[in-house]
Design brief:
Layout (H helix, E strand, L loop, with lengths): L1 H36 L1 H50 L32 H15 L1 H20 L2 H25 L1
InterPro entries: EcsB_ABC (IPR010288)
GO cellular component, one term: membrane
Keywords: Membrane, Transmembrane, Transmembrane helix
Length: about 180
């Protein structure tokens, strides 16, 4: 009795696999027939799309030409006015601008002091980097966005994702700081 059950189970499995293969073969044959008889439609749609792309590209190139002509006209007009004002100046030179002192911070960091007591090149670079990161609005925004995104991911995500998010955050934060350090 057990042998018949096992044989029957294997027989059913064999027929299910064969039926699945037959269904896949019929589907593949139907796809081949559709592709065989629809090639004129594919070629026609390809030709229509290529003509539309060429027409769009031609219009864009024409607009770019007009844009550059307009920029050149504006530059000529500005230079004409500059030539007029320079001709009024008897010296024939452009006046020097007065020395302007460095702008101080408006609200925060008015009395900024040294962070490190020992004055070395490495400490000076670190100090400049920290102060720029704290004062520059773009750098602050990027760091705060990254911290906010990863904090939300760690708080909302499942437990298994928290460790991965922490590792990705450490790598992304390090790379962001290295990019900013190279800029500074």
């Amino acid at each position: 009795v057990l042998k018949r059950r096992n044989i029957g189970w294997q027989y059913k499995l064999k027929h299910r696999v064969l039926n699945a293969g037959l269904i896949f073969f019929v589907w593949l044959s139907a796809c081949a027939v559709v592709l065989l008889f629809s090639w004129p439609v594919v070629i026609l749609s390809g030709m229509v799309l290529s003509v539309a792309a060429l027409k769009t590209a031609g219009g864009t190139l024409g607009n770019m030409y007009l844009f550059y002509e307009e920029v050149e006209f504006d530059n000529r007009r500005k230079l004409r006015l500059a030539k007029f004002f320079l001709s009024l100046n008897l010296d024939g030179s452009v006046p020097k601008q007065g020395k302007r002192g460095a702008k101080g911070p408006r609200l925060f960091f008015k009395k900024s002091r040294n962070i490190f007591k020992a004055r070395t090149v490495q400490n000076g670079l670190k100090e400049i980097f920290f102060k720029v990161m704290l004062r520059h609005p773009d750098y602050k925004r990027q760091v705060m966005q990254m911290i906010g995104i990863f904090t939300a991911l760690i708080m909302v995500g499942p437990i298994w994702m928290k460790a991965g998010a922490l590792l990705v955050f450490a790598f992304a934060y390090r790379s962001l700081l290295s990019v900013h350090f190279d800029k500074v």
